[in-house]
Amino acid sequence: MESQYDNKKRFIVNAIYFFLIALIVYVFLNYAINLISPFIFAFLIACMLQKPTKSLAVMLKIPPKMVSIVLVLLFYSTIGLLFSLIGVKLISVVTALISGLPMIYETQLEPFLLNTFDVVEQAVYRLDPALVNVLNEGFNQFVNSLGEDVKNISLSLVGSLSSIASSLPEFLIKIVLMIISTFFIAMDYDKLAQFISRQFTNRNIEVIKKIKQYISHTLFVVVRSYLLIMSITFIELSIGLSVIGIPNAVLIAFMIAIFDILPVLGTGGIMIPWTIITFIQGNYQVSIGILVVYVIVTIVRNILEPKIVGGQLGLHPVVALMSMFIGANLIGVIGLFGFPITLSLLKHLSDTGTIKLLK
Question: How many Cβ atoms are within 10 Å of 295's Cβ, its own excluded?
Protein backbone atom coordinates (compact mmCIF):
# COMPACT_ATOMS: atom_id res chain seq x y z
CA MET A 1 0.00 0.00 0.00
CA GLU A 2 2.79 2.37 0.93
CA SER A 3 4.65 1.42 -2.27
CA GLN A 4 1.61 2.35 -4.41
CA TYR A 5 1.33 5.67 -2.56
CA ASP A 6 5.03 6.39 -3.19
CA ASN A 7 4.63 5.55 -6.89
CA LYS A 8 1.64 7.88 -7.23
CA LYS A 9 3.47 10.62 -5.35
CA ARG A 10 6.53 10.18 -7.58
CA PHE A 11 4.33 10.27 -10.70
CA ILE A 12 2.63 13.51 -9.59
CA VAL A 13 5.97 15.15 -8.74
CA ASN A 14 7.44 14.11 -12.12
CA ALA A 15 4.33 15.32 -13.96
CA ILE A 16 4.50 18.74 -12.26
CA TYR A 17 8.25 18.88 -12.92
CA PHE A 18 7.87 18.21 -16.66
CA PHE A 19 4.88 20.55 -16.88
CA LEU A 20 6.96 23.38 -15.38
CA ILE A 21 9.83 22.64 -17.77
CA ALA A 22 7.42 22.65 -20.73
CA LEU A 23 5.89 25.93 -19.51
CA ILE A 24 9.32 27.57 -19.13
CA VAL A 25 10.36 26.39 -22.60
CA TYR A 26 7.10 27.66 -24.10
CA VAL A 27 7.39 31.08 -22.44
CA PHE A 28 11.03 31.32 -23.48
CA LEU A 29 10.37 30.38 -27.10
CA ASN A 30 7.23 32.48 -27.40
CA TYR A 31 8.35 35.65 -25.63
CA ALA A 32 11.97 35.84 -24.44
CA ILE A 33 13.48 34.48 -27.64
CA ASN A 34 12.19 37.51 -29.56
CA LEU A 35 14.35 39.76 -27.37
CA ILE A 36 17.54 37.71 -27.43
CA SER A 37 17.17 36.19 -30.92
CA PRO A 38 19.79 38.53 -32.52
CA PHE A 39 22.40 37.34 -30.03
CA ILE A 40 21.42 33.66 -30.36
CA PHE A 41 21.73 33.80 -34.15
CA ALA A 42 24.99 35.73 -33.82
CA PHE A 43 26.42 33.02 -31.57
CA LEU A 44 25.25 30.22 -33.90
CA ILE A 45 26.76 31.93 -36.96
CA ALA A 46 30.04 32.57 -35.12
CA CYS A 47 30.08 28.94 -33.98
CA MET A 48 29.45 27.76 -37.55
CA LEU A 49 32.38 29.84 -38.85
CA GLN A 50 34.88 28.57 -36.25
CA LYS A 51 36.16 25.52 -38.17
CA PRO A 52 36.85 27.39 -41.44
CA THR A 53 38.37 30.25 -39.41
CA LYS A 54 40.87 27.98 -37.66
CA SER A 55 41.68 26.06 -40.85
CA LEU A 56 42.35 29.24 -42.85
CA ALA A 57 44.35 30.79 -39.99
CA VAL A 58 46.70 27.78 -39.93
CA MET A 59 46.87 27.53 -43.72
CA LEU A 60 47.53 31.23 -44.38
CA LYS A 61 49.42 31.88 -41.12
CA ILE A 62 47.15 34.81 -40.29
CA PRO A 63 45.80 35.63 -36.80
CA PRO A 64 42.39 33.95 -36.26
CA LYS A 65 40.78 37.28 -35.37
CA MET A 66 41.61 38.71 -38.79
CA VAL A 67 40.30 35.60 -40.54
CA SER A 68 37.08 35.67 -38.49
CA ILE A 69 36.46 39.32 -39.44
CA VAL A 70 36.89 38.53 -43.16
CA LEU A 71 34.66 35.42 -42.99
CA VAL A 72 31.89 37.25 -41.13
CA LEU A 73 32.04 40.04 -43.73
CA LEU A 74 31.86 37.52 -46.59
CA PHE A 75 29.02 35.62 -44.92
CA TYR A 76 26.80 38.64 -44.34
CA SER A 77 27.66 40.19 -47.71
CA THR A 78 26.60 37.01 -49.52
CA ILE A 79 23.41 36.62 -47.48
CA GLY A 80 22.58 40.32 -47.86
CA LEU A 81 23.06 40.23 -51.63
CA LEU A 82 20.88 37.14 -52.05
CA PHE A 83 18.08 38.48 -49.86
CA SER A 84 18.21 41.88 -51.57
CA LEU A 85 17.84 40.37 -55.04
CA ILE A 86 15.05 38.01 -53.97
CA GLY A 87 13.31 40.68 -51.85
CA VAL A 88 13.25 43.33 -54.59
CA LYS A 89 11.86 40.85 -57.11
CA LEU A 90 9.28 39.51 -54.65
CA ILE A 91 8.09 42.97 -53.61
CA SER A 92 7.70 44.09 -57.23
CA VAL A 93 5.71 40.96 -58.14
CA VAL A 94 3.45 41.17 -55.06
CA THR A 95 2.86 44.92 -55.51
CA ALA A 96 1.96 44.46 -59.19
CA LEU A 97 -0.40 41.60 -58.32
CA ILE A 98 -2.15 43.53 -55.55
CA SER A 99 -2.56 46.71 -57.59
CA GLY A 100 -3.85 44.64 -60.51
CA LEU A 101 -6.61 42.89 -58.52
CA PRO A 102 -9.39 45.33 -59.60
CA MET A 103 -8.37 44.95 -63.26
CA ILE A 104 -8.30 41.15 -62.93
CA TYR A 105 -11.81 41.34 -61.50
CA GLU A 106 -13.10 43.53 -64.34
CA THR A 107 -11.44 41.61 -67.18
CA GLN A 108 -11.59 38.03 -65.87
CA LEU A 109 -13.89 37.43 -62.92
CA GLU A 110 -16.84 39.68 -63.84
CA PRO A 111 -17.21 38.30 -67.42
CA PHE A 112 -17.04 34.77 -65.97
CA LEU A 113 -19.80 35.60 -63.47
CA LEU A 114 -21.94 37.19 -66.21
CA ASN A 115 -21.61 34.12 -68.45
CA THR A 116 -22.42 31.85 -65.53
CA PHE A 117 -25.43 33.98 -64.64
CA ASP A 118 -26.75 33.82 -68.22
CA VAL A 119 -26.73 30.02 -68.04
CA VAL A 120 -28.47 30.06 -64.62
CA GLU A 121 -30.98 32.67 -65.82
CA GLN A 122 -31.99 30.57 -68.82
CA ALA A 123 -32.44 27.52 -66.60
CA VAL A 124 -34.56 29.50 -64.09
CA TYR A 125 -36.65 31.04 -66.91
CA ARG A 126 -37.61 27.57 -68.11
CA LEU A 127 -38.74 26.66 -64.59
CA ASP A 128 -40.47 29.91 -63.52
CA PRO A 129 -40.18 33.18 -65.54
CA ALA A 130 -41.37 35.19 -62.51
CA LEU A 131 -38.15 34.41 -60.65
CA VAL A 132 -35.92 36.00 -63.31
CA ASN A 133 -36.42 39.60 -62.06
CA VAL A 134 -35.64 38.58 -58.48
CA LEU A 135 -32.56 36.72 -59.70
CA ASN A 136 -31.42 39.73 -61.76
CA GLU A 137 -31.70 42.08 -58.80
CA GLY A 138 -29.86 39.72 -56.48
CA PHE A 139 -27.10 39.12 -59.03
CA ASN A 140 -26.55 42.84 -59.65
CA GLN A 141 -26.22 43.44 -55.91
CA PHE A 142 -23.80 40.53 -55.64
CA VAL A 143 -21.59 41.76 -58.52
CA ASN A 144 -21.50 45.33 -57.19
CA SER A 145 -20.73 44.12 -53.68
CA LEU A 146 -18.02 41.77 -54.94
CA GLY A 147 -16.41 44.56 -56.96
CA GLU A 148 -16.28 46.80 -53.90
CA ASP A 149 -14.87 43.94 -51.84
CA VAL A 150 -12.08 43.36 -54.37
CA LYS A 151 -11.16 47.06 -54.30
CA ASN A 152 -11.23 47.07 -50.49
CA ILE A 153 -9.07 43.94 -50.35
CA SER A 154 -6.58 45.55 -52.72
CA LEU A 155 -6.44 48.71 -50.59
CA SER A 156 -6.12 46.73 -47.35
CA LEU A 157 -3.29 44.65 -48.80
CA VAL A 158 -1.48 47.81 -49.85
CA GLY A 159 -2.02 49.08 -46.30
CA SER A 160 -0.59 45.83 -44.95
CA LEU A 161 2.52 46.32 -47.07
CA SER A 162 2.82 49.83 -45.65
CA SER A 163 2.55 48.50 -42.08
CA ILE A 164 5.21 45.90 -42.86
CA ALA A 165 7.42 48.67 -44.20
CA SER A 166 6.84 50.69 -41.02
CA SER A 167 8.04 47.74 -38.91
CA LEU A 168 11.30 47.50 -40.89
CA PRO A 169 13.25 49.87 -38.57
CA GLU A 170 12.85 47.46 -35.64
CA PHE A 171 13.86 44.54 -37.87
CA LEU A 172 16.88 46.45 -39.17
CA ILE A 173 17.98 47.27 -35.61
CA LYS A 174 17.92 43.53 -34.80
CA ILE A 175 19.92 42.78 -37.94
CA VAL A 176 22.54 45.41 -37.05
CA LEU A 177 22.77 44.04 -33.48
CA MET A 178 23.19 40.51 -34.84
CA ILE A 179 25.96 41.54 -37.26
CA ILE A 180 27.89 43.51 -34.63
CA SER A 181 27.47 40.70 -32.07
CA THR A 182 28.71 38.14 -34.61
CA PHE A 183 31.94 40.10 -35.09
CA PHE A 184 32.61 40.32 -31.34
CA ILE A 185 31.68 36.68 -30.66
CA ALA A 186 33.70 35.37 -33.63
CA MET A 187 36.82 37.30 -32.56
CA ASP A 188 36.63 36.17 -28.91
CA TYR A 189 34.91 32.81 -29.41
CA ASP A 190 37.52 30.77 -27.52
CA LYS A 191 37.44 33.13 -24.52
CA LEU A 192 33.63 33.05 -24.42
CA ALA A 193 33.58 29.25 -24.74
CA GLN A 194 36.08 28.89 -21.88
CA PHE A 195 34.11 31.33 -19.71
CA ILE A 196 30.87 29.41 -20.29
CA SER A 197 32.54 26.05 -19.64
CA ARG A 198 33.89 27.29 -16.27
CA GLN A 199 30.33 27.87 -15.07
CA PHE A 200 29.52 24.14 -15.25
CA THR A 201 30.81 20.98 -13.63
CA ASN A 202 32.69 18.38 -15.67
CA ARG A 203 29.60 16.17 -15.89
CA ASN A 204 27.45 19.06 -17.10
CA ILE A 205 30.08 19.99 -19.68
CA GLU A 206 30.00 16.42 -21.02
CA VAL A 207 26.20 16.57 -21.26
CA ILE A 208 26.39 19.94 -23.05
CA LYS A 209 28.95 18.54 -25.51
CA LYS A 210 26.68 15.57 -26.22
CA ILE A 211 23.73 17.90 -26.74
CA LYS A 212 25.78 20.13 -29.06
CA GLN A 213 27.02 17.17 -31.12
CA TYR A 214 23.56 15.64 -31.35
CA ILE A 215 21.84 18.91 -32.30
CA SER A 216 24.49 19.62 -34.96
CA HIS A 217 23.95 16.15 -36.41
CA THR A 218 20.16 16.45 -36.09
CA LEU A 219 20.04 19.82 -37.85
CA PHE A 220 22.00 18.29 -40.73
CA VAL A 221 19.57 15.35 -40.79
CA VAL A 222 16.52 17.66 -40.78
CA VAL A 223 17.92 19.77 -43.62
CA ARG A 224 18.70 16.59 -45.57
CA SER A 225 15.19 15.24 -44.91
CA TYR A 226 13.47 18.39 -46.16
CA LEU A 227 15.76 18.54 -49.19
CA LEU A 228 14.63 14.99 -49.97
CA ILE A 229 10.96 15.98 -49.54
CA MET A 230 11.53 19.05 -51.71
CA SER A 231 13.17 16.88 -54.39
CA ILE A 232 10.24 14.46 -54.40
CA THR A 233 7.80 17.38 -54.67
CA PHE A 234 9.87 18.86 -57.52
CA ILE A 235 9.82 15.57 -59.46
CA GLU A 236 6.06 15.15 -58.97
CA LEU A 237 5.34 18.72 -60.04
CA SER A 238 7.68 18.51 -63.06
CA ILE A 239 5.98 15.35 -64.33
CA GLY A 240 2.45 16.57 -63.55
CA LEU A 241 2.83 20.04 -65.07
CA SER A 242 4.59 18.61 -68.14
CA VAL A 243 1.72 16.17 -68.71
CA ILE A 244 -0.79 19.04 -68.44
CA GLY A 245 1.22 21.00 -71.00
CA ILE A 246 2.34 23.94 -68.87
CA PRO A 247 5.20 25.93 -70.49
CA ASN A 248 8.47 26.01 -68.49
CA ALA A 249 7.10 23.21 -66.30
CA VAL A 250 10.48 22.33 -64.75
CA LEU A 251 11.26 25.94 -63.75
CA ILE A 252 7.76 26.47 -62.29
CA ALA A 253 8.01 23.13 -60.44
CA PHE A 254 11.33 24.19 -58.92
CA MET A 255 9.89 27.50 -57.67
CA ILE A 256 6.80 25.81 -56.18
CA ALA A 257 8.97 23.12 -54.53
CA ILE A 258 11.01 25.83 -52.78
CA PHE A 259 7.78 27.60 -51.74
CA ASP A 260 6.52 24.25 -50.40
CA ILE A 261 9.00 24.46 -47.49
CA LEU A 262 6.84 27.19 -45.92
CA PRO A 263 4.59 25.43 -43.35
CA VAL A 264 1.48 27.64 -43.66
CA LEU A 265 1.35 28.34 -47.39
CA GLY A 266 3.10 25.43 -49.07
CA THR A 267 2.18 24.37 -52.60
CA GLY A 268 -1.41 25.46 -51.97
CA GLY A 269 -0.30 29.09 -51.71
CA ILE A 270 0.49 29.00 -55.43
CA MET A 271 -1.52 26.14 -56.92
CA ILE A 272 -4.95 26.91 -55.44
CA PRO A 273 -5.04 30.53 -56.75
CA TRP A 274 -3.58 29.23 -60.03
CA THR A 275 -6.40 26.67 -60.28
CA ILE A 276 -9.05 29.33 -59.64
CA ILE A 277 -7.56 31.82 -62.14
CA THR A 278 -7.28 29.25 -64.95
CA PHE A 279 -10.85 28.09 -64.26
CA ILE A 280 -12.16 31.67 -64.47
CA GLN A 281 -10.24 32.15 -67.72
CA GLY A 282 -12.07 29.15 -69.16
CA ASN A 283 -9.10 26.73 -69.24
CA TYR A 284 -11.10 23.99 -67.51
CA GLN A 285 -8.82 21.08 -68.45
CA VAL A 286 -5.71 22.91 -67.26
CA SER A 287 -7.51 23.99 -64.08
CA ILE A 288 -8.60 20.43 -63.26
CA GLY A 289 -5.11 19.15 -64.10
CA ILE A 290 -3.42 21.63 -61.75
CA LEU A 291 -5.91 20.71 -59.00
CA VAL A 292 -5.23 16.98 -59.46
CA VAL A 293 -1.45 17.55 -59.33
CA TYR A 294 -1.87 19.65 -56.16
CA VAL A 295 -3.97 16.95 -54.47
CA ILE A 296 -1.43 14.23 -55.35
CA VAL A 297 1.54 16.31 -54.15
CA THR A 298 -0.25 17.19 -50.89
CA ILE A 299 -1.24 13.58 -50.14
CA VAL A 300 2.26 12.25 -50.89
CA ARG A 301 3.90 14.96 -48.76
CA ASN A 302 1.56 14.36 -45.80
CA ILE A 303 2.35 10.64 -45.96
CA LEU A 304 6.11 10.93 -46.48
CA GLU A 305 6.98 13.92 -44.27
CA PRO A 306 6.30 12.26 -40.87
CA LYS A 307 8.00 9.04 -42.01
CA ILE A 308 11.10 10.70 -43.46
CA VAL A 309 11.57 13.32 -40.74
CA GLY A 310 10.48 10.99 -37.93
CA GLY A 311 12.60 8.12 -39.25
CA GLN A 312 15.71 10.30 -39.50
CA LEU A 313 15.13 11.67 -35.98
CA GLY A 314 14.35 8.27 -34.47
CA LEU A 315 10.71 9.20 -33.77
CA HIS A 316 7.55 7.29 -34.63
CA PRO A 317 5.72 8.96 -37.58
CA VAL A 318 2.70 9.73 -35.36
CA VAL A 319 4.92 11.34 -32.69
CA ALA A 320 6.80 13.32 -35.35
CA LEU A 321 3.55 14.49 -36.98
CA MET A 322 2.04 15.44 -33.61
CA SER A 323 5.13 17.38 -32.51
CA MET A 324 5.30 19.22 -35.86
CA PHE A 325 1.60 20.12 -35.69
CA ILE A 326 1.73 21.30 -32.05
CA GLY A 327 4.99 23.20 -32.60
CA ALA A 328 3.72 24.97 -35.72
CA ASN A 329 0.49 26.01 -33.99
CA LEU A 330 2.19 27.23 -30.81
CA ILE A 331 5.29 28.98 -32.13
CA GLY A 332 5.14 28.83 -35.92
CA VAL A 333 8.12 27.92 -38.10
CA ILE A 334 10.49 27.62 -35.11
CA GLY A 335 8.09 25.17 -33.44
CA LEU A 336 7.64 23.16 -36.64
CA PHE A 337 11.33 22.27 -36.63
CA GLY A 338 12.16 22.84 -32.95
CA PHE A 339 9.61 20.50 -31.33
CA PRO A 340 10.62 17.32 -33.25
CA ILE A 341 14.32 18.09 -32.71
CA THR A 342 13.73 18.65 -28.97
CA LEU A 343 11.79 15.37 -28.66
CA SER A 344 14.52 13.55 -30.57
CA LEU A 345 17.17 15.06 -28.27
CA LEU A 346 15.28 14.04 -25.11
CA LYS A 347 14.82 10.50 -26.48
CA HIS A 348 18.54 10.27 -27.35
CA LEU A 349 19.63 11.49 -23.89
CA SER A 350 17.21 9.03 -22.28
CA ASP A 351 18.40 6.12 -24.47
CA THR A 352 22.06 6.83 -23.66
CA GLY A 353 21.31 7.07 -19.92
CA THR A 354 22.32 10.72 -19.68
CA ILE A 355 18.91 11.54 -18.22
CA LYS A 356 16.19 9.24 -16.85
CA LEU A 357 13.08 10.21 -18.76
CA LEU A 358 11.60 7.22 -20.59
CA LYS A 359 11.44 3.52 -19.79
Answer: 11
